[in-house]
Amino acid sequence: MNMELGSVATFSLYPDLYARFRPSYPEELYDWLLPLCPGRQRAWDCATGSGQTAVRLGESFSRVDATDISSSQLSAAEPHTQVYYRECPAEVTPFDDDCFDLICVSQALHWFHLPSFWPEMQRVLKPGGIFAAWGYHHCVVSPEVDRACSVLWSIIEPFWSSRCQLLWDDFRGSGCPLPLLKAPSFTISSDWALDHFLGFLNTTSASKLCKQALGESILDDACQRITRAWGPRNQVRRVDLPLHLMVARKDDAGGYAG
Fold this sequence. Notes:
Blueprint: H1 5-12, H2 15-21, H3 27-33, E1 42-46, H4 52-58, E2 63-68, H5 71-75, E3 83-87, E4 100-106, H6 114-124, E5 125-136, H7 143-156, H8 164-168, E6 187-192, H9 194-202, H10 205-214, H11 220-230, E7 237-249
Parallel strand pairs: 1-2, 1-4, 2-3, 4-5
Antiparallel strand pairs: 5-7, 6-7
Helix pairs in contact: 7-11
Protein name: Methyltransferase type 11 domain-containing protein
GO molecular function: S-adenosylmethionine-dependent methyltransferase activity
Domain Methyltransferase type: 45-132
């Protein structure tokens, strides 16, 4: 399994809404990352969710294998001619040794059983291949909206999994066995109206677990505070989400820890 059982259920809730409200990762990230790869033949988007990263990689690679443990997430994934979806845990895969130029994990590495995942990642990554993991946490809009959001964050805080700390710590202590590369900083910048922003906040894992435990209306007051701080409902605001990023390269000698 590549996720806690409770987390699998959480991400399986409302997969269409999750897909609709996830932000797009910045093109600058791919512009920096893809030239590091030894080739553009094959990539693996691990824990693909709704397929957001996989579809973007499909524009650059001959084939993208996109796996996830959640069948409901995969059912909502966006189709692409170069992307092949498969229900499969991260830690045990059917892939051949040394077959991927790039392995990506977006917004999911902290859910994995890493002692099992690292050997599998090393096994299927080509010599010279690139492993990259990234994710986001808090967002920045404006001082007024950010203050209003702090009420919502305080309500859902107990419902974040302890595993999220790995992401918040920039993956320090992940135990990645490959040499790390120095990576620049990237930020997701999206232009959203209020309804999209509220949809994003309400589809985080902590928000969904909070509403499951305390009732669907538990976040209503906090959302009203955000609505008042936002201004006109159709007003578009810039929402920034700084990315946590870890990038590593498998040495050209190959080999993996078995």
